[in-house]
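Hey, quick one: can you model this chain's 3D structure?
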Amino acid sequence: MPDWLVQIPDNRDHNGDPGGEIVLQARRDNLPAHAAHNKKHIEAGHVVVSGPLLASHDDEPLRPVGSAMVWKADSESQVRAWLEEDPYAKSGIWNLAMATVTPYLCAVRVPM
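Sure thing. Here's the predicted structure for all 112 residues.
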């Protein structure tokens, strides 16, 4: 299966702020469901890398403003369908209209 590099910005809060408090609270509230949902994709080998995009490495605490991941899938449409099922998408955290799903060729993959 080919690799796909995915980047999804979070929606902005009512002030137009990426990573604003409303979106951050929604991330916290939905994290257990998001992790449980993705567990099956991780175990199946579909998600090989994932984590939050940050506003900065200098912020304390670190402030997520989106998500990045690498998926193994047969097609971009398959990746997008899986993303639409995610609790972060269903709860309005992610801005799926601005998501990029790019064909990706991983040259180095080192286990953690």
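One thing worth noting: The helical segments are 21-43, 76-85, 87-90.
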